[in-house]
Amino acid sequence: MRGILRACAVIAAGILVSTSASEAATIRIARGALPPSLGVPFTAVGQPSSEIWIAMFDALTRIDPKGVLQPGLALSWVNTKPATWRFVLRPGVTFHDGSPCNAAAIIATLKLLQRPESAKYYVSSEVKNIAALRRIDDLTFEIDTREPDAVLPRRMSMIFIVSPTAWAKLGEEGFAQNPSGTGSFKLADWGRGSAVTKFVAFKDSWRAPKVDAIDLYTVVEPVRRVQALLSGQIDVAARLGPDELRQLPEQGFQIRSLEKSQVMALTFRLVGNEKSPINDVRVRKALAMSVDREGLVRSVFDGRVKPANQGAAPVTNGYNPSIPPIPFDPTGAKALLAEAGYANGFKLRISVFLGQLASDELIYQQVAQSIRSLGIDVELRSITYAQWLQSYVTSEWGDTDLFGWVWDSGSTYDAARPIETASCVKDHPFNCDPALVPAIRDVASEMNPAQRLPRLQELVARMREAYPAIWILYVADTYAASNKVSGLDVWHMGIQYENLSLK
Length: 503
Hints:
There is one protein chain. This protein is α+β, with helices and mostly antiparallel strands and about 500 residues long. The protein folds into three domains: about 1-40 and about 185-250 and about 485-500, Periplasmic binding protein-like II (D-Maltodextrin-Binding Protein, domain 2); about 60-165, Alpha-Beta Complex (Dipeptide-binding Protein, domain 1); about 260-475, Dipeptide-binding Protein, domain 3. It has 15 helices and 22 strands. It has helices at about 1-10, 50-55, 105-115, 150-155, 165-175, 220-230, 240-245, 280-290, 295-300, 330-340, 360-370, 385-395, 415-420, 435-445, 450-465; strands spanning about 25-30, 60-65, 70, 75-80, 85-90, 130-135, 140-145, 185-190, 195-200, 215-220, 235, 255-270, 305, 345-350, 375-380, 400-405, 405-410, 470-480, 485, 490, 495, 500. Strands 1, 8, 9, 10, 11, 12, 13, 14, 15, 16, 17 and 18 form a twelve-stranded mixed beta sheet that branches. It has a four-stranded antiparallel beta sheet with strand order 4-5-7-6, covered by helices on one side. It has a two-stranded antiparallel ribbon with strand order 2-3. α8 (about 280-290) runs antiparallel to α10 (about 330-340) and α14 runs antiparallel to α15. About 45% of the residues are buried.
């Protein structure tokens, strides 16, 4: 009777709990929305999408929470020539569909991303410098780049490898519904009607799972995730904010926080928007000076995160500790606006998509209000992720002046990546300062880490002086779990599912 009641009850969190013979071997996790592209793992590089994909897919390399590059599908890599990297693969790896994950399969995924029609994918920019792909044998292949690329092995951590057999058979739309990777779990049901995505263990994975199944509940509101955790409906609540953490008692739950290599920001759209007042660096600096970052992180996050002063987080290679904080100085900001000829303000349009970060709606509202205090007419718009991605890829932003974008070094833990993205180097750029391009290319081609670091830090400092964004705070993710869960290990991409077990 008790099991029947549990199977039928919808508790305050709004999650329908199901039972089965293997329930004791199933970890139940509440997290945000499904990726818009479902099982096509090329449309984003971070959460919330990556938290779904890392259950099913692997990349050539992985980056641990300390920013150290670790083996993935590749066991080793070496820079044999200035513009050539050789990778040696892990033996005996197979996809969920039974096909081998070998050098030919890796090359097929990288070539897939090089097609003109793949320009719509977020990660396609990571392969644009690849000039040639060469199979040496089943477990060895080489990548030739057009220009030397010091961080290419780190870039490869962003590209999940798909089964070329399944992709060829199903096409993009079919693969989205029935993905095939090499991860610890394979998809059983997207659960688009039930809001429960079900994964079953892939016992042949090189990341062997410890449980039989993972149930991922789509619960958009973090407060409902906490309610579900408190009521025992789930075992893990993902990506919680300070308001939710305050609801958890001191005993009975474990908390895991990860300081990420990401910077929450509102980024200026300068290319194609040349007549806007924001093209004056004094205006951009004034808007940045209007934000009370210390007060914001204290009031919203209880001091759990740190205010940002640059486009690289402290855990990122290239973070520049000598850069001073951005002052909170509304009076000075108004003086800068007057100096630039905008004492009476102007119209400013900001477009953001919500749900990417904890409390992001509240943060954007507070930043918009800070800018309004300067006498600027701010329109804050909420758009969908699909709309945002289309604009990001094409740089067709309409009349948007600023947009929400995480300066994401987290995929590589190297500050060069977001700088490249916010520069002329990006296809269809939204910001382009030709004076920075030589320094960007110099940093990319320097293979000696000791010589590269100071050059990268100087580039970060130059980018700070240009104020291409209103950097707000350094991102951290927090997870909560029942004490009956073991192995809660959180990396940049999300939970390492293979380590999870039940006591």
